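tool=predict chain=A
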Amino acid sequence: MAPHIAGIDAKLAAAGYTPGTRRGMLKIVGDVGRWLNEERLTAADFDESAVAPFRAARAGARQVGRSRPAPPGEPGQPVDR
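tool=predict ok
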């Protein structure tokens, strides 16, 4: 999904989304990309039928603590001052 990030971000910005909202949405796009790689699928394979398995995998990763921590400065993370 990396080649698509800049274009997606530009479309979100043009639609009036705030930088914080765009970051959150782009994180999901990154999660989709990693899931597609794990499942050996392409972006073209990500259709409506793939949403439920993706969401289940994402929820499962969070339950076992495999989700990536937010970078410093993101909600829920301390900021060094």
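The chain is about 60% helix and 0% strand. The two ends are 34 Å apart (CA to CA).
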